[in-house]
């Protein structure tokens, strides 16, 4: 068996909060430390095989982008390690983050913000490969044209500026720029979220074609379950910084196990199930500054029992390669659990 291309091992990321003078005084009077932290990502372990596309799904603020940025070498994790092809991209030390890694390329949500408005798209696409010696000067023009054609644009668009393109075309340019670096791994962070639905479908189809032709490996971050279903082999569901369920897309969509996954599915009217009875998830997402004890989902969970309020559930096997972090799965929540 070959090792996974990407190995995320027990990664956490906390963003320290700056304490105001009033906080410091109050904390000193109370005999505790001032400040605190946003628990953006907690104890996440995940692998991605070569040629695999793994989705990261969850509501806003659950830590998806932070995880993507750690994998891209933009953030150092507070704890844990990220290995690409067995070598560290990042460890829990700021000076051990490979900020210049070219092997992971990130594609962001907003194609308007991610392209330099004053740079011709040909220069945008070829800048990275030229700087890093990935293409020679003599190859640059042909390679840039070929990349534009590969993403469904005309080669002579290389001479145009970003404002001459639509949102969907700009996202194609962003994909061409990422592919130009010949990355081992793509991190797509809400890559189609800002596009109209019909354009989303076109860009997703492009991604699927590229995946088939180039054997891409990717982390596909999205809040949109219907988008993820079309492009991912496996899907990790995140809640308040933790992975709560990880399964093949097929199994997850056929039979979601974690109460949060079930609630997430029930809240989406457009999953093609023909169901009209979609229900928003009840309650608010808790603060990542002060996560609830036990299972972070327990305040919103219809099945929560005493154990859920006290003990953090670990990800455990639930059959067929699926893992679920729920006490219902690892022995139940006790008599007191609501029916
Ligand atoms: N640089 C930062 N400094 C402080 N807090 C941050 C920082 N980046 C993210 N956070 C916080 O970390 C938590 C996770 O944010 P993150 O952007 O990773 O979530 P997300 O699931 O990608 O949400 P969204 O889909 O809204 O982007 C949030 O509470 C967010 O406010």
Automatic annotation (TrEMBL):
Gene3D superfamilies: P-loop containing nucleotide triphosphate hydrolases (3.40.50.300)
Domain (ABC transporter): residue spans on this chain: 6-265
Membrane topology type: Peripheral membrane protein
Keyword ATP-binding: yes
SUPFAM superfamilies: P-loop containing nucleoside triphosphate hydrolases (SSF52540)
SMART domains to which the protein is assigned, alphabetical: AAA
Pfam families hit by this protein: ABC_tran, oligo_HPY
Official protein name in the record: ABC transporter ATP-binding protein
Organism: Marivita lacus
Species classification: Bacteria, Pseudomonadati, Pseudomonadota, Alphaproteobacteria, Rhodobacterales
């Amino acid at each position: 068996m070959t090792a996974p291309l990407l190995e995320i091992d027990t990664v956490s990321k906390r963003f320290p909060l700056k304490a105001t003078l009033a906080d410091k005084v109050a904390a000193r009077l109370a005999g505790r430390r001032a400040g605190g932290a946003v628990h953006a990502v907690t104890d996440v372990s995940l692998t991605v095989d070569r040629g695999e596309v793994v989705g990261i799904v969850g509501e806003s603020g659950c830590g998806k982008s932070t995880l993507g940025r750690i994998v891209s070498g933009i953030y150092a994790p507070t704890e844990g390690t990220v290995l690409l092809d067995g070598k560290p991209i990042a460890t829990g030390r700021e000076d051990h983050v490979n900020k210049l890694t070219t092997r992971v390329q990130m594609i962001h949500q907003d194609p308007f913000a991610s392209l330099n408005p004053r740079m011709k798209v040909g220069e945008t696409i070829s800048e990275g490969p030229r700087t890093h010696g990935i293409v020679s000067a003599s190859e640059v023009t042909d390679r840039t044209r070929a990349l534009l054609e590969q993403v469904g644009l005309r080669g002579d668009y290389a001479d145009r500026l970003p404002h001459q393109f639509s949102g969907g075309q700009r996202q194609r340019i962003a994909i061409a720029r990422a592919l130009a670096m010949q990355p081992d791994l793509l991190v797509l962070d809400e890559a189609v979220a800002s596009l109209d639905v019909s354009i989303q479908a076109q860009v997703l189809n492009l991604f699927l074609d590229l995946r088939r032709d180039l054997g891409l490996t990717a982390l596909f971050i999205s809040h949109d379950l219907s988008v993820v279903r079309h492009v991912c082999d496996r899907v990790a569901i995140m809640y308040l910084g933790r992975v709560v369920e990880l399964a093949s897309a097929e199994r997850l969509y056929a039979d979601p196990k974690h109460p949060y996954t079930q609630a997430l599915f029930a809240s989406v009217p457009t999953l093609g199930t023909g169901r009209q009875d979609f229900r928003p998830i009840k309650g608010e997402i808790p603060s990542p500054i002060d996560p609830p004890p036990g299972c972070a989902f327990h305040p919103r969970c219809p099945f929560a029992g005493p154990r859920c309020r006290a003990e953090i559930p670990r990800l455990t096997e639930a059959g067929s390669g699926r893992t679920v972090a729920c006490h219902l799965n690892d022995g139940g929540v006790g008599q007191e659990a609501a029916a």
